[in-house]
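pasting input
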Amino acid sequence: MESIGTAAAPKQNFFARFWSNLKFTFKRLWERIRSVVMAVVHGSLATKMSFLFMGVGQIMRKQYVKGILYALLEVLFILFMAFFGGNYLFKFLFSGHLGTVQETEQVWDDALGQYVSVPGENSMFILLYGVVSLVVLVLFVIAWGMNVKGSVNNDRLLAEGKPVNTFKQDCALYINRKFYVTLLLLPLIGLTVFTVMPLVFMILIAFTNYDYQHLPPSKLFDWVGFSNFANLFSLAEGTGFAKVFLLILAWTIVWAFVATFSNYFLGIIVAKIINRPRTKLKKLWRTLLVIPIAIPQFITLLMMSKILDGDGILNKILGTTIYWLADTQYLSLLPRITIILVNMWIGIPFTMLMTTGILMNIPQDMLEAAKLDGANSWQLFWKIEMPYIFHVTTPYLITQFVGNINNFNVIWLLTGGGPADSIHYGVGNSKSTDLLVTWLYRMTTDTNVQYAMASVIGIAVFVICGLVSLITYNRSKAVTQEEEYQ
Amino acid sequence: MKYKGKQILCAALSLTLCFGASIGAAACGGGDTSGGEDVTLVIWLPQEDRQYAEEVTEAFQELHPEKNYTFLFGAQPESDAGTAVLNDVSNAPDIFCCASDHLRKLYNGGAINRLGGALLNRLNNEIDADAMEAATLDVAGEKQTYGIPYTYNTYFLFYNKAKLNEEDVKTVDGILAKCSETEQFGFPINDGWYSSAFFFGAGVTYEVEYDASFGEVKIDTNIDGADGMAAARAMGRYARNPGFKGDSNDSKIVAGFEDGSIIAGVSGVWNLKSVEAILGDNMGIAPLPTYTFNTETNEQKPLKAFAGYKLMCVCNYSNVKTDALLLAEYFCNYDNQMKHFEMRSYTPTNKKAMQEQKVQDDLCCSVTLQVMANSQSAASVPTTWWTPLESLGNALVTGGGETTAEAQVKAAVEKIRKGV
């Protein structure tokens, strides 16, 4: 990443930097397009031919292989659009609907002796292949641009009296000077196909009415604009999500905050205790604490949910019938606390291991100097060790916080989002310990699926996580005072 | 030369990166079958029915030697099948078993094939009319049948004859009188499917209005009326009784009979064989008991169970619909319903099978039919019904009493109602 904005204005905050970077990128893009267009207008016949038909200019310059490859690409693109993508792309971009022909009612077929229906259009395919075709179109435009630019370059080389590159020379270029392009090509394709396209598809679902009443292939779904987002903040009785969303958001934030910092500080304390010179059997303690990590998390969690059940071992031992994970009294306070405690049991060892390493790395001369000046151990911890640990681990804290916002495992495997209490549920069937992610998951697997609203909530989670990470990370000392410790 | 080696390494690494990304998407496939001689049929049914289904399909193959069938079984309990089918309709199994209360949703998702012609006539002749009614939807004034009912879907009382006699199990108070903290009465009060019995017994009703595509437009209920409140208070009272185990789901009831901590429990025929294996001759079954509706007058009201049917449905998107329809009908015919009865004690819906002496004499069948006779049809239960009742049950299980129950019902009714 080139960070021109940073160099120009180091004091700017993140958003201003982002904005200036964006402006710069667009300006550069525009200048490039302009220069190419000008070059074509003033260019040779070959360049003008390339502008119209890919590869022709290259063939005219005797770059046969390259020219044929470009021409082949154009033919493939035209075939793809004519027989497959064009139809979907048109419906997706211009028709304003995701299909108009719905599957018919089932009618009796005398010959077959059964009811049959005539299939209609499938909104899901229109959306999916629409996105795919759009990406293909964008890639094609880039290839076309490369083709034009190549011709313009050829013009320039000829004007300077130099020969144009042969195919061999071009290939050599991509394993030498432009080797980074060759390397990044495959990951780039992978990212586009397996990350960007599905993501765009999922985001677009938030703008449709894809739910249990509009399930393809038998029913069509359609664009509904921003109404799902309006619904998220609507208080309307029976359909508005605002109340439930805010309740769950509040618990998600509380959970993420408490879960992150309890693990963090208790982990540091445990590491400190084990690191004390007087502590015996250091290795044994560390090993014992690390055992929960060694077992797959979902197994420990499922085991915990059995242990903490109303009929679980814990109650048998204590001789009580406490519903550790199902008590709905006081806003389901007990399940919430239990979840945080179980999460501590799983999470503390990680922080402990990490801080043990950091504590061992603190320059001993600093500590000794402080001791000579008469600092007690408490002061050593708060004034030297803690700032040091905090500085090193801020990025870890941020990832932990975001990870906990999305901590599906702990919640789902311990309580399944439950217990149901009388304040939650309603729209989206939420339960008391649901995080936004478990709620989202339930919406997509429940009896009344609501894919569109689930997508909206997914976007909300993304925005929250994105904002939290960007703001805290950019304000953290690890970034702003990076050079101090180097 | 060294430089070149590094390049190759880099290229290999970037390749791996790419493959790593593609592995996730590589899992797919699915057997497309054409007509003709080779036919593959995918069937979803509960795990416990696997043995039964294998025997039935083997016999079916023998009946149709002109075709070469391959049967693929998927384990899916009837209660979840509807949801699972709707999650991916185009790849749904050819035949699946589901609870009749999912019928509207499956119709709405276009998942089920309508039955008609000679097949429907045969079914109407052979199968109990009430059961056929439960597989039928009223679409714009037209009766449309979408599944084949093969057994009843309801619940009754299991009890340990060594601890309770036939007189005890007539009332909840009678049962609880013999129960203690170590020998409990298991009633899953935190599951709306069961706890609703208190309300329906008291005369609580609900009413749902659907639009053309069976979306719920209006839901109303009188659960917060005087009867509903009295039923809720009774639930609260029982929940506080140390002999009453309110969170006893299916597996806890079986486990409870096993270790003796439960001496009576409410569950369904799906647990019959497991409980029988534990209690042997001491296993008793009975219709649901009555409960004390009003403590002052000692007025008793019956527990009125939710009742539905289990249906065998054919997917509308099956490419081998003709064979699927044949097999579904075969599964639900007289012979195979008798087989199901013998193997799993499932009460048949086939009229002739119901008349069989064996079936008539069977206690489980007669109890099932008695429960059915006084039950609440699960056909058009509002989708908003379940979670509020689960919440009510949770509050009672975790120590709430009569006042909690009343407050919970008042909260629940707001969530159940829609468009009123």
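fyi Chain A touches chain B through 52 residues (CB under 8 Å).
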